[in-house]
Amino acid sequence: MTSFSLRRDPGPDGCLVEVKNLYKSFGATPALVDASLSVRGGEVLAVMGPSGSGKSTLLHCMAGIFTPDKGEVWFDGQRLDQLSDTGRTQLRRSAFGFVFQFGQLVPELTVSDNIALPLLLNRVSRKAAYARAEAWLARLGLDGLGERRTGELSGGQAQRVALARALVGQPKVLFADEPTGSLDTLTGEMVMELMTAVTREEGSTVVLVTHDARVAAYADREVMVRDGRVIDRSGAQVEVGR
Fold first, then answer.
1. For residue 226, what pLDDT is reported?
2. pTM for this entry
3. Phi, psi of 93 (to 5 degrees)
4. For residue 6, is it within any domain?
5. What is the reported pLDDT for 236?
6. What string of DSSP letters covers 77-117?
7. Alpha-carbon distance 165 to 93, whole Å?
8. 218: number of CA atoms within 13 Å, CB side?
9. 32-36: long-range contacts, CB 8 A cutoff, minimum separation 24
10. Which CATH number goes with the domain that contains 184?
11. What parts of the chain have a pLDDT lower than 70?
12. Which long-range contacts (CB under 8 A, 24 or more apart) does 5-14 make?
């Protein structure tokens, strides 16, 4: 299976992303053990847990970056884990956006170049790509910074550029892995307020990995990952059916 057909809306139950009974190990070290989780379209979900609990591995499996050893990953009603490497890459470019702890901007490129890059990779015309990049600069309070190199930005500015790059392609799902982990408290709050506001305006689903309860408070719902299993607020293991 090499291609993926996106639906316009979530399925009848509203579920957009689902993982079922995932197992993932790195060598002899288990990272996920019978992990299950579902995310509704338009939901902002916080996945919490201490370092080493498996929460980032869960996000990477949900996004098709890692392939689980066992279990199923569903997106938009179709099996993501059965796609080829090429198919998963195409899906990440067309339907997913990513924000990581340190932004992972390309230092050799300008701010505008970084934001336009996903569109250019998807063969959007240069004129249209840079017009959309400029619109996102204005939307996130980055006017006048388009020609700067990323090394000239503050931490908060750089993370807003990363957010713009993640959202410029209008993804159905934004995956954010510790997006405020390298920021001070006030800057982190500003980034989270922007992230949740613009994703709700865009109708994007957000899967947010964090160990910080203040960051998780911006979400609609929280789950915990503990010893590779997903549990709800009551401490019960999350189970999903299909």
1. 92
2. 0.89
3. -75, -35
4. no
5. 78
6. TEESTTS-HHHHHHHHHHHEEEEETT----TTSBHHHHHHH
7. 11
8. 24
9. 32/57, 32/58, 32/61, 32/68, 32/71, 32/228, 32/229, 33/227, 33/228, 33/229, 34/71, 34/228, 34/229, 34/237, 35/71, 35/225, 35/228, 35/229, 35/230, 36/230, 36/237, 36/238, 36/239, 36/240
10. 3.40.50.300
11. 1-13, 103, 234, 241-242
12. 5/78, 6/76, 6/94, 6/95, 6/172, 7/76, 7/77, 9/41, 10/40, 10/41, 10/42, 10/76, 11/76, 11/77, 14/40, 14/41
* 80: containing domain: 15-231
Which are the contacts of 136, defined by CB distance < 8 A and separation ≥ 6? 115, 142, 164, 167, 168
Q: Which amino acid is at 41?
A: G
Q: Which burial class, exposed, middle or buried, applies to 28 when counting CB atoms under 10 A from its CB (0-12, 13-18, 19+)?
A: exposed
CA neighbor of 42 nearest in space, from 168, 195, 172? 172
Query: Can you give the pLDDT at residue 52?
Result: 87
The token pair at 172 is 């159905």
Q: What CA–CA distance (Å, rounded) separates 15 from 28?
A: 33
The count of structural domains within the chain is 1
Q: Is residue 41 assigned to a domain?
A: yes
In angstroms, the Cα distances linking 121 to 90, 183, 219 are 10, 29, 31
Place of tokens 């884990």: 81
